[in-house]
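Narrative progress, year one. The postdoctoral researcher (J.K.) led the effort to move from monomer predictions toward full complexes, under supervision of the PI. The following entry was the first complex the group processed end to end, covering 630 residues in total.
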Amino acid sequence: MDFLKKLLKGDKLTIARTITAVENSNNSEILKEIFPYTGKAYHIGVTGPPGAGKSTLVNIVIQKLLEENKKIGIIAVDPTSPFSGGAFLGDRIRMTDLALRENVFIRSMATRGSLGGLSQKTKDVALVLDASGMDYILIETIGVGQVELDIAQVCDTTIVVLVPESGDSIQAMKAGLLEVADILVVNKGDREGCDSLILELKFAFELREQKLGWHFPVLKTIATESKGIEELISNIKSHKKYLKSSGKFEEDRKRKLALRIDELIEEKIKSHLKEFSSWRNGDQLEQLIAKVYQRKLTPYHIADEITKKIIVGKK
Amino acid sequence: MDFLKKLLKGDKLTIARTITAVENSNNSEILKEIFPYTGKAYHIGVTGPPGAGKSTLVNIVIQKLLEENKKIGIIAVDPTSPFSGGAFLGDRIRMTDLALRENVFIRSMATRGSLGGLSQKTKDVALVLDASGMDYILIETIGVGQVELDIAQVCDTTIVVLVPESGDSIQAMKAGLLEVADILVVNKGDREGCDSLILELKFAFELREQKLGWHFPVLKTIATESKGIEELISNIKSHKKYLKSSGKFEEDRKRKLALRIDELIEEKIKSHLKEFSSWRNGDQLEQLIAKVYQRKLTPYHIADEITKKIIVGKK
């Protein structure tokens, strides 16, 4: 197919159109065609709480990678409203200068459906960028409890960005964030509390280090002054080297592919469920719900009955 | 059953044990028993970004409702780690004084599985509190893009709490938050920017007001000084009155019950999927994944094949 040739060559318009097609369709035909040409790009996730300076950091990392003549795809994932259908701008505006560079392709994820659905689409978009010949794919996402875990699933190296003034609520978020981190960055490193946060994080990482054989670095950056970026880049490269030499790279990717297959099966079943209309249409639904509202029937009994009709051999 | 009698009487120990049983089990037997006795409690959701002062506000609202001799159940939902299995404390510590009051039952949701899973469990816990004879159930949750939508699904009145200094990232969250709000509260109302935020929010609400027939109030509070609380309470009551007199109360609850049935079916199918082990076990899995890793097979083809085997009549 013509589009595939152009995509593999990295034609920007074709990349954009393919991503749009993938975003708008629940059909996996395009992805089936693209998939054989993927697996080459190195995926870097950047996540953290709102206001940690992720975009600024990503921006500078990209500049450095461009100096090495690398091709870079960027996917920005934002918290979105399942209702509004539109994303807010913000940090991303600053990134538009980058989009004009030849070796850069930036995609801001639009808002379709839930954050969960968004994470799935992000994985598909990453495949398109991978097939288009990117050396690196950077995925920036807000770390709010779930999305970053989904995103980490497609990333070889996940960088978690925190700031010294992270409060209680942020603490709670960190629990999930630390689990996905391969590299930790404390940004805005000139602010009060930075060194004690770094110590605290190093301590939290100690047990994991022994388990996994990778010395988790906790780095200090001041992204707005480009401070600490060289060290961050060299740590990304060390992590890549570690993954490759230890066999973890192949092992991780295989595990993640298996997870992806599970997700695809779940998605298929969900969409089948939406088509399965016999209980939703017409009077039967209204009568059933009225009985549930009056507490003469429970939702659990109805769910049991319907599931039996959908699943092969379910009793 | 003995436990049911005690639960319906509001015995605190029985409430606690029933909640634990419901949290730990994927089995709906207990819920089937409880469900016929539910539907009486009025559900109030309180959501908003981290640091908006939700807990302080909830705390004072409860004090006022207690003065009216109401029975109140409180569920605190926090962002959690799917890995760590433990929640952080924080605001909740301040709420422990309340737990000693006779007419109050507080449950902090433990962290099991994803935030998505947590939202489902929260709905089950709300049913237990409902059956135990609570007049009001207050559910406090952090508003970070998804959980608050799930929680709004069980709430009759949802209060969204914002603060004047909400930044860009918070703006993005607000998109989803505004959609679930029945009442908006700008807390920390003595801080700069409060009045302009209130104006902005009132403007954002104008279209929705015309559509839905409820005049969305945008209130100013200073929770730490108990300011604006009387007005908040009176607005909660007005909203309740509006729902009941317009027929929206029954309509909303029926719609939400239908949604709940859909969720239960999805959950059932997911857990069936986990049991469906034929492709996961043994050599077949490893061989398949190796082929996917080598790009000789795609995840999409495998998902197609497996789905056909699970779903009745799927081609």
